[in-house]
């Protein structure tokens, strides 16, 4: 009983404290798949758009007090979400990338104002098919020998996809595989040479393949997508020694002329290893057909003649040249053979020679009676003719040159050598009263059918060309279109044949020179003219050179080629109208200056009322002498006054060209004969100059001088007339005084 009251008091106090306590709020746990609560086992796809409402925090307070929500992250991590403190709505504020961050740790909290409850949550970021496959270990370059067996593995390509599931699985295939010698394994990416396929370095030295890597597909922003990537695989084919050597430029023809020296090169054969990647060295040799007359350089392939052409026994030699590859080990390898035709050609360099009984002779004489019988042979003439050339070159004709129809020569056609016979053709014409001596020549005209040659062409490159059968001029076909970029070199054979079928061949090489195919564009006013290919064109250019202006023309051309005018013309070649305008302006200025100068000269002459010569000589008149010596003074004046100075004029212009600008050279001084009769006089002209007269030379007559001087410009004619009148007046005055 004594303890009762304290125990009751304690219980009462506990009850009061519990009644006054405030309990903390808490989150609802709605489990996986729920979009509200405490984010337990919450996951979010990585392709969720930024700004999306992704979750709602939801909780309660036992006392029913209002609660607020908060979310925070580790300081080293990104703040991916934001939350509405009143509603608890969580919004995505940063882009997600599962391949970079597949889990997000956050701290969510709920508070009633007095109590705060915090929980650590982990949000899983789920995969979306946002990553394409990516090839690794690029670039892919494979070296494969050309003799690799079919079905062999060549290389492996590999691509990775960082996505998960089917979106991360990769399969391989070739892009545009048909036709192809290659295949790729769908799952492993191994590249193989297909069954039955072979490689050939000579046909294709490299192959370029495109391999595609594709994923298994997946969802991306709600849609099913399949992503892929490509890579290039280069397969370089390595050459192996599997090809025989090949001759270039066949068929081979050579010619040896009769003046060819022993040791001279006839032609060169060229061969190369058929394996172009790592070619072997080749050696040449003659197999047969040379008979010791020819030899070949084993390294260069040059064929030379070893004997004098006069020692060769055949006209045509068929040689067989063999080329042998030498392996890297120095042993003989593959071989090839080619025929070579060499023709011995005789030159027509020996004229026919006449021989008498004692050797070569070019004059034969015979005495005979007149009127011999018809058909009689002149047996007193022993004539032999010989041509030391060979074949057709030794064939020639004979004929008599002289009075026609009297004799006839037999034979008329000779091959190499023949006895010449002269036969009487017209007995009546052999008449002593008409002819005491008859002179004839027996000649080879080197013309006629034996001198005719016909030309023809043949060969693979002759389709675009034709040859004139008589002149040998080669033309292009009228329809031919030559293009240096397409085919820059043609070769074919020309055959020259005489009437007997004897012929020789020559190989012709034609190289096309590239031209500027892009021609400039002209205006519509320019007419276009087309020349058909194959038509022979003859261009004739005639020049007329005026000797009187040659020096000035040279000077003008040099000025044009070196002066500023040339530079100006080159600069304005693209704009010709600019050049025309400038030249027109210059000409206008020149015309204006000419008009001004002419006007000034005219008014000056009009003011002075007389024509002024360009250069004048003024002499002070001597003071009158006493009458006793007047006769001597007149004699001196008659002989010296007008003759002391003579005119130095330009030589006459034979081409009637008055545009010469050079300084004219003085002509030889006129010869003057001393005369006590009429006094000679000379007249200066506008373009002349005065100088002392050379002594001991007669002066021309006044009329002749006047006549010669009268030919010129009107200014010169006026000046001559004025001065002539002055001199005549002075002469008359002198005569009267005398």
From TrEMBL:
Annotated keywords: Calcium, Cell adhesion, Membrane, Repeat, Signal, Transmembrane, Transmembrane helix
Signal peptide: 1-21
Family matches, as Pfam families: Cadherin (PF00028)
TM regions (residue ranges): 579-603
Compartments it resides in: Membrane
Membrane topology, as annotated: Single-pass membrane protein
Gene Ontology CC terms, in alphabetical order: plasma membrane
Entry's Gene Ontology molecular function annotations: calcium ion binding
Matching InterPro entries: Cadherin-like_dom, Cadherin-like_sf, Cadherin_CS
UniProt-annotated stretches for the region Disordered: 644-714
GO biological process: one example: homophilic cell adhesion via plasma membrane adhesion molecules
Residue ranges annotated for the Cadherin domain, each copy included: 42-135, 136-247, 248-354, 437-522
Matches recorded under SMART domains: CA (SM00112)
Record-given protein name: Cadherin domain-containing protein
Organism this protein belongs to: Capra hircus (Goat)
């Amino acid at each position: 009983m004594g303890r009762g009251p304290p125990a009751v008091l304690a219980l009462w106090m506990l009850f009061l404290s519990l009644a006054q306590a405030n309990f903390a709020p808490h989150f609802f746990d709605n489990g996986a798949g729920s979009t509200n609560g405490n984010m337990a086992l919450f996951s979010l796809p990585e392709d969720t758009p930024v700004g999306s409402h992704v979750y709602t925090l939801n909780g309660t307070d036992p006392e029913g007090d209002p609660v607020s929500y908060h979310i925070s992250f580790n300081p080293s991590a990104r703040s991916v979400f934001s939350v509405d403190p009143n509603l608890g709505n969580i919004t995505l504020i940063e882009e997600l990338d599962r391949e970079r961050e597949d889990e997000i740790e956050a701290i969510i909290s709920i508070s009633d104002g007095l109590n705060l409850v915090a929980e650590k949550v982990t949000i899983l970021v789920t995969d979306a098919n946002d990553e394409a496959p990516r090839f690794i270990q690029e670039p892919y370059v494979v070296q494969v020998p050309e003799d690799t067996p079919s079905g062999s593995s060549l290389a492996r390509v590999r691509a990775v996809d960082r996505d998960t599931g089917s979106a991360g699985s990769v399969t391989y295939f070739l892009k545009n595989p048909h036709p192809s010698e290659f295949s790729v394994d769908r799952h492993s990416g191994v590249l193989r040479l297909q069954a039955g396929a072979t490689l050939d370095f000579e046909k294709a030295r490299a192959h370029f393949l495109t391999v595609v890597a594709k994923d298994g597909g997946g969802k991306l922003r709600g849609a099913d997508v399949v992503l892929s990537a490509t890579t290039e695989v280069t397969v370089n084919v390595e050459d192996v020694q599997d090809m025989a050597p090949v001759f270039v430029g066949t068929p081979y023809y050579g010619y040896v002329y009769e003046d060819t020296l022993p040791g001279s090169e006839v032609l060169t054969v060229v061969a190369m290893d058929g394996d172009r990647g790592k070619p072997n060295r080749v050696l040449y040799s003659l197999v047969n057909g040379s008979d010791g007359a020819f030899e070949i350089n084993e390294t260069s392939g040059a064929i030379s003649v070893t004997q004098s052409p006069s020692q060769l026994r055949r006209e045509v030699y068929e040689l067989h040249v063999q080329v042998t590859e030498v392996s890297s080990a120095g042993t003989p390898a593959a071989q090839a053979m080619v025929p070579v035709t060499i023709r011995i050609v005789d030159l027509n360099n020996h004229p026919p020679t006449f021989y008498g009984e004692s050797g070569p002779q070019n004059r034969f004489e015979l005495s005979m009676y007149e009127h011999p019988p018809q058909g009689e042979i002149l047996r007193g003439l022993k004539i032999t003719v010989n041509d030391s050339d060979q074949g057709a070159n030794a064939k020639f004709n004979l004929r008599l040159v002289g009075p026609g129809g009297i004799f006839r020569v037999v034979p008329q056609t000779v091959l190499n050598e023949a006895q010449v016979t002269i036969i009487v053709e017209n007995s009546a014409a052999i008449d002593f009263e008409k002819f005491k001596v008859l002179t004839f020549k027996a000649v080879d005209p080197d013309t006629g059918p034996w001198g005719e040659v016909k030309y023809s062409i043949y060969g693979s490159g002759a389709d675009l060309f034709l040859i004139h059968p008589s002149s040998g001029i080669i033309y292009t076909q009228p329809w031919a279109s030559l293009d240096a970029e397409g085919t820059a070199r043609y070769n074919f054979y020309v055959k020259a044949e005489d009437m007997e079928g004897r012929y020789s061949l020559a190989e012709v090489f034609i190289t096309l020179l590239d031209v500027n195919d892009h021609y400039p564009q002209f205006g519509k006013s320019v007419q276009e003219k087309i020349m058909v290919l194959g038509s022979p064109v003859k261009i004739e250019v005639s020049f007329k050179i005026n000797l009187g202006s040659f020096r000035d023309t040279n000077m003008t051309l040099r000025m044009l080629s070196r002066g500023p005018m040339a530079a100006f013309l080159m600069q304005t070649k693209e704009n010709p109208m600019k050049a025309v305008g400038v030249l027109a302006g210059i000409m206008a200025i020149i015309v204006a200056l000419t008009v001004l100068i002419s006007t000034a000269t005219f008014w000056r002459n009009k003011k002075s009322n007389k024509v002024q010569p360009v250069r004048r000589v003024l002499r002070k008149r001597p003071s009158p002498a006493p009458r006793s010596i007047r006769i001597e003074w007149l004699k001196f004046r008659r002989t010296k006054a007008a003759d002391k100075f003579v005119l130095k004029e330009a030589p006459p212009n034979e081409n009637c060209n008055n545009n010469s600008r050079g300084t004219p050279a003085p002509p030889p001084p006129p010869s003057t004969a001393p005369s006590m009769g009429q006094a000679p006089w000379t007249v200066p002209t506008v373009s002349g100059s005065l100088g002392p007269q050379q002594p001991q030379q007669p002066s021309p007559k006044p009329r002749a001088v006047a006549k010669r001087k009268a030919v010129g410009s009107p200014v010169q004619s006026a000046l001559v007339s004025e001065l002539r009148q002055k001199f005549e007046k002075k002469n008359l005055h002198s005569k009267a005084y005398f």
